[in-house]
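hey all, quick one before standup. I had two proteins in the batch that finished overnight and I want to keep them in one place so we stop losing track of which output belongs to which input. First protein below, input sequence then structure tokens straight from the run.
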Amino acid sequence: MYKFKVPQLYNLKDSPFYGHGASFTKIEDVIAYKSKAISENTNVPNTQIASEFHSLNLTNDEILKITDFIKNGLYDANIKRYVPQKILSGLAFPNNDTQSRKDLGF
């Protein structure tokens, strides 16, 4: 019912698109959208929109500073060091679907 899993912010600048259905291509645009808090989909009833989704009235300078923090402050060029070689369950990581198990030799 219009609820989605939100991705982590680490290394977000490596993604080529953002938003549901890739409706944004720049982090700055996502932050500006969140600041304005105007629903993109008129088919979603207001009762299904989180109460936290409200106008933040950020200035352009604040949007740029938040964008810079997300792009650079939350960037780790060596984030792969946290990917385990294997997990205790023995399942494929990070996905455990049929194709991932095949690709990873499980």
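OK second protein, same deal, sequence then tokens:
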Amino acid sequence: MVYKNRPFKTILFGFAFSPKLKINILETSRIAHFFNAKLILLHVGSKTQEKEDKITTFLREAEYKDLDIEVHWKEGDPIDIIVNTCKTSSIDLLILGALQKENRYKFYVGSIARKLTRKVCCSVLLLIKPSVARVPCKSIVVNGLDAPDTPLSINAAFYIADALGAPQLTIVEEILQKDIQVTVQDDKSLKKANIVKERLKHREEQRVREIVKDIPDSCKQGIKIKNQSIFGKRGYSIGHYAAVVRADLLVMNAPSKTGILDRIFPHDIEYILSDLPTDLFIIRNRFDSEN
């Protein structure tokens, strides 16, 4: 699937009155500008004049003044309200702030945000490093794993790179160690394992090249594209890679499983949610989520 027109036409930012509210509103309004999107600010809680005045003041400080912005106030369970709003308001992208662990330079997703990434019908952007003044996005990493929704995520990554002016896009193919199926015991088996690795890398890179080939050249113009094959646990490996190369944004497929066993035994994106390496953009196929 190749994106046509704007994939993120309506953005929802669910906010609380935290110390980072101003900076999150400034960053979110900036993203809405680059995506040419309508922005809905939603507070699940009571509406007071003091709160209204604070939001109005923050919006006046936003970089771009021509945005289509609405502020909604609703009371109830935060998860239920946000999930329902995403459906009823045809939200394409939900933006949430992630929190920093105390005394550590790591970020984590709170229980509400973690549940929302599983339940909402739209894509989700988790922000860990919003800023008052714009920090250009220079490098984006996107998963290239062999999965049905990967073409959608790669297409989205190109759209995002173009919208944000990011010059570098790296597509990471995570290859499971078990796929090598060679036990290294001596020099001969080591050589065999290396040959198998090269064949797997070639196969994965060829598969990704076919996806990229179908993307219009106009969407790839000015973007340096890199393929990177890595061996290891899915989710954990790409998260580590994004941290090592200091990517500004990591784009991932939405989790396909949400059962209790998947929460007990982490997989794929759960590794990343437990220790965010950078801002995380989770691409969800709206059609699949509604069926």
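Flagging for whoever picks this up: The mean pLDDT is 85. Residues 136-249 form a domain with the Rossmann fold fold (CATH 3.40.50.620).
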